[in-house]
Amino acid sequence: MQQTKDMGVEKGFIKEKIVAVIVEMAVQDWPQQWKNFLELLVQIAAMGVKLVIRIISHLIRRLGYAARINIDHLAISSRRDSGVQ
After folding, report:
1. What are phi and psi of 9, to 5 degrees?
2. How far apart, in whole angstroms, are the C-alpha atoms of residue 39 and residue 34?
3. Residue 5 to residues 14, 15, 16, 51: CA-CA distances in angstroms?
4. Which residues of the chain have pLDDT under 50?
5. Residues with Cβ < 8 Å from 78, sequence gap 6 or more?
6. To 10 degrees, the CA torsion angle through 40, 44, 47, 53?
7. pTM of the prediction?
8. Would you call 43 helix, strand, or coil by DSSP?
């Protein structure tokens, strides 16, 4: 059986996983399915929840990554469609 870590480490790990799940949900669902996502983040931030900063930071990085993949895919498709190798 694996030992658990210090409570502070465990809490940090859980928070990071929660952030990762929220970010992935936002990437998949926002803005089409989760129209009020940004409003919710602002409301939660106003309550002083520091986790929102992590969510926003991870979301920006994740969306940037997704955008780069889509741009690369479009460039490859465009070159293929125009006959350029």
Report:
1. -70, -45
2. 10
3. 12, 15, 15, 21
4. none
5. none
6. -140
7. 0.59
8. helix
CB atoms within 10 A of CB 50: 9
Q: Which of these, 55, 72, 57, lies nearest to 21 by C-alpha position? A: 55
Structure tokens at 8: 């502070």
Q: Quick one: tokens of 66? A: 């997704």
Q: How far is CA 80 from the centre of its chain?
A: 31
Per-residue confidence (pLDDT) for residue 36, from 0 to 100: 92
Tokens of 84: 């350029």
**Inter-residue contact 30 to 37 (CB < 8 Å):** yes
The alpha-helical segments, DSSP class H, found in the chain are 7-29, 37-46, 51-82
Model pLDDT, residue 45: 80
Q: In this structure, what token pair is assigned to residue 83?
A: 């006959």
